[in-house]
Design brief:
828 residues; 13% strand; 8-stranded parallel beta barrel; alpha/beta; 47% helix
């Protein structure tokens, strides 16, 4: 029986923790766990057998950290040998246990090739290229698949872009089932800002076979996240919690939930509808055995297909449903001479500002079209998508007729995109649908075909049906098609609007589908076009329009939108309408709105507080706004202008730092996410470089506030958190001594003594490396007792930090800045 067949009718039980069991068998602090695949294969075989005997039917290979980054070419260990040995050890354990069972009722065992994060943050927030990440995973997957793995398990992922790289690597390297589990925090957020809905949308689009969460939390803390996963996912949900929350006892990491409690909590999760479960850090064969005993006879309930039409960015999902969705049309050269020139000049900052302005004015999605005959559209499309998603958290609509440009955009897109478009022509559908089948997306289907645009609504409905049928051949369901009923100019066809409106109604009522229109086409050639546009927009919304491509900077269109929502009972107590138009001086544009608008989702809701930080620069945007929105070039331009009239230190202290504080506080509150935090830091860095040059030329100098050592502890190569903290500390004028990753305690202590550093920051991702952190703290207490130590990392909690002797547990980068300010400020 293969895995797919087993999943249809049976519970799927994963094994539990590996690192903690290896530590019990003698793995030393800082020792690389994967090397035991060759050094001590008998230990790995024993652990796998223990889990199989406990009732697990998926055992994971000891390859969580195996990559070329950790085991470089020509190094002491051969990566391919380590991966092949890991699969071999699991296979040997399976063979022994199956022989033990003999003719008992079949209980198949499958080997999961285990892939963890690379430990690097992908560009533009870090230094790892997306295609490099894909290549790193491909190398491991190819070896593991050839060695006999039965599936690929991608786990403990905190970055949606990295999990996409791993999934694509798996899909492009083998034909094995692919499972992916994410590491959410207690609020249901990823490190890089994604939430359950955005992650599910992307992973379902990439066609993984099951998805879920693991690590970071115990089963109790995971329940609300599991509930949300079950609500939105059409795929089986995997739940692999830690054995509660960790602490240190006598140099060992222990967890606060024993095997009986763990099993009882997992039974509750199983009764919620989860049939794929196991354990992560701190769980043992005993935990798994008791879980299996309580859960194996519960009914298996396959997930229902949710039929949601949903797109996503890295940070949020947008659902096409009762609430109409606004797609900003301004990133498109059609009829826009300035935009065309910006494309010719490679002026990406102009494009980014167009995006930011549309987000601030209420767009939910941004259309991206960069097609000009005289430029390289595929390259420009890829670059613009990357730049936009670095500073804006809205989903994007990839708008191009070039299959190459479309694929390059979809490949680098961090989410599930809206794809514009296909039509009823066979050659177009055959070019676009394979890309959507591979990368995911919701496809705009234009109701035209080889015979042109049908004059009647019936003709357009027939084309829509053709598009649905062809999409189904590629496994694309009707929920991932949104029909464009085609909006023809009313000045040349007096019945054009009526035909379009009938098409909208029939797609909704007869086909149960979703619709989209480029609304402004209706008024082409007429004077005062916005009058016609707004009236037609309201009519279309009434007749079922799901999404509208409009100019959100146009007040008439936005008034029609907010008014319709209030009148159609889509705006409870008219709160959004009041928020936009109810206050003194509220004209509507740029106002922050609540649940339905972009202001609540990202930077749109933050601009007011920072806007008072200083007058606008030459290009019309205040320095503080440039920093908050992460616009690097604009920040540099704005600060140059400010230095013409203000003292450099005043600009830093009265404009730059307050802007960073706004972003930091938003990050702490969960209204701003890590990518935005990092891009703001990059914009500030760009501005600081200009200030430094100015101060140097004028003989001024800014003294650093103090020195801080940062290091990822011995045995750990994951330096994402450390690098994020470094960026922020440097922006707050601290001198950071970055010792890198896999740093021995002695090197940290030696540097602290030599430099007389008041603060040391230590980072660790893996349970197996926390003892190195504790040892480093012990040595610092002995040889540098004045040093205050802050710690952070996915496996840590406040209680855990206290038990290993740290002075402060910093849950995020801003907490580290606050601790440095507290310690060094008091010292001064």
């Amino acid at each position: 029986m293969n895995l797919y067949q087993w999943m249809k009718e049976h519970h799927v039980f994963f094994d539990g923790g590996m690192g903690s069991l290896l530590q019990e068998r003698g793995l030393q602090a800082g020792e690389l766990p994967e090397t035991w695949n060759l050094l001590h294969p008998e230990v790995l075989v024993d652990i796998h057998k223990a889990y199989l005997r406990a009732g697990a039917n998926i055992i994971t290979t000891n390859t969580f950290g195996a990559s070329r980054l950790k085991y470089p070419e020509g190094g002491a260990w051969d990566l391919k040998e380590l991966v092949a040995a890991a699969v071999k050890n699991a296979a040997a354990a399976r063979e022994e246990v199956l022989l033990e069972r003999g003719s008992e009722e079949p209980f198949p065992a499958f080997i999961a090739l285990d892939l963890g994060p690379t430990g690097k943050l992908l560009k533009p927030y870090g230094d790892l290229e997306f295609e490099r990440a894909v290549a790193l995973y491909k190398e491991v997957i190819a070896v593991g698949a050839e060695a006999g793995a039965d599936l690929v398990l991608i786990e403990t992922m905190s970055d949606s872009m990295e999990v996409k790289a791993a999934v694509l690597a798996a899909k492009e390297s083998c034909s094995l089932p692919v499972f992916a589990t994410m590491a959410f925090d207690e609020k249901g957020k990823l490190l890089t800002g994604g939430n359950v809905e955005s992650v599910v949308a992307m992973l379902e689009g990439l066609r993984v076979d099951a998805l879920g969460l693991n690590c970071g939390l115990g089963p109790v803390q995971m329940k609300p996240i599991v509930e949300k996963l079950l609500e939105v996912s059409s795929l089986p949900v995997i739940v692999n919690p830690n054995a509660g929350l960790p602490r240190s006892e006598g140099g060992r990491t222990v967890y606060d939930i024993d095997s009986d409690q763990f099993a009882q909590e997992m039974e509750k999760i199983a009764r919620m509808g989860v049939f794929m479960m196991g354990g992560c850090c701190g769980t043992t064969p005993e935990h798994i055995e008791k879980m299996v005993s309580l859960c194996r006879n519960l009914p298996v309930k396959q997930p229902e297909k949710k039929g949601r039409t949903v797109i996503s960015s890295y940070a949020q999902a947008v659902v096409m449903g009762k609430n109409p969705v606004l797609i900003g049309e301004r990133i498109n050269p059609t009829g826009k001479s300035k935009f065309k020139q910006a494309l010719r000049d490679h002026n990406l900052e102009y494009i980014l500002k167009e995006g930011v302005t549309q987000q601030d004015n209420g767009a939910h999605v941004l259309d991206v079209n960069v097609g000009l005959p005289e430029i390289d559209e595929p390259s420009m499309m890829e670059e613009v998508v990357k730049e936009l998603q670095a500073v804006i958290d809205l989903p994007l609509q990839i708008d191009t007729s070039s299959p190459e440009a479309m694929e390059r955009a979809l490949r680098c897109y961090n989410g599930k995109a809206l794809v514009n478009s296909v039509n009823g022509k066979q050659e177009v559908m055959e070019a676009v649908f394979p890309l959507v089948a591979k990368y995911g997306g919701v496809v705009v289907g234009l109701a035209l075909d080889e015979d042109g645009i049908p004059e009647t609504a019936e003709g357009r409905i027939q084309v829509a049906k053709k598009i649905y049928r062809k999409a189904a051949e590629y496994g694309i369901g009707p929920e991932d098609i949104i029909i464009d009923g085609l909006c023809m100019t009313v000045s040349s066809d007096s019945r054009g609007a009526l035909t379009t409106l009938e098409t909208l109604r029939r797609v909704r009522d007869e086909l149960g589908g979703k619709t989209i229109l480029g609304v402004s086409n209706i008024s082409f050639g007429l004077p005062q076009r916005e009058i016609i546009n707004a009236a037609f927009f309201t009519m279309a919304l009434h007749d079922g329009l799901s999404a509208a491509i409009i100019n959100p900077n146009n007040e008439a269109m936005m008034r029609a939108y907010y008014s319709y929502r209030a009148l159609a009972d889509l705006d409870a107590q008219c709160m959004d309408y009041i928020a936009v138009y109810g206050g003194p001086g509220n004209s509507g544009l740029g106002a922050t709105i609540g649940k339905n608008g972009a202001g609540a989702a990202g930077f749109g809701g933050q601009t007011g507080a920072a806007g008072a930080g200083g007058p606008a620069g030459a290009k019309g945007m205040a320095l503080s706004d440039c920093v908050i929105k992460g616009l690097r070039e604009a920040a540099a331009d704005a600060v140059r202008e400010r230095l013409n009239t203000r003292d450099a230190l005043a600009v830093i202290n009265e404009e730059m730092i307050p802007a960073l504080d706004v972003v930091g506080k938003g990050f702490e509150k969960g209204t701003i996410f890590l990518p935005q935090l990092l891009m703001s830091a990059e914009a500030a860095k760009s501005a600081f470089e200009v200030i430094k040059e100015h101060m140097s030329a004028s003989g001024q100098a800014q003294e650093p506030k103090g020195k801080v050592i940062l290091a990822t502890v011995k045995g750990d190569i994951h330096d994402i958190g450390k690098n994020i903290v470094k960026v922020l500390l440097e922006n707050y004028s601290y001198q950071v001594i970055d010792l890198g990753k896999d740093v021995p305690p002695e090197a940290i202590v030696e540097t602290a003594v030599k430099e007389q550093v008041p603060v040391v920051g230590l980072s660790a991702l893996m349970t197996t490396t926390v003892p190195s952190m504790e040892e480093t703290i012990c040595q610092l207490r002995e040889k540098a007792p004045w040093v205050k130590v802050m710690v952070g990392g996915a496996v840590l909690t406040r209680e855990y930090a206290d038990t290993i002797g740290a002075d402060r547990y910093c849950k995020d980068a801003m907490a580290s800045v606050n601790f440095a300010e507290e310690v060094i400020g008091e010292a001064k």
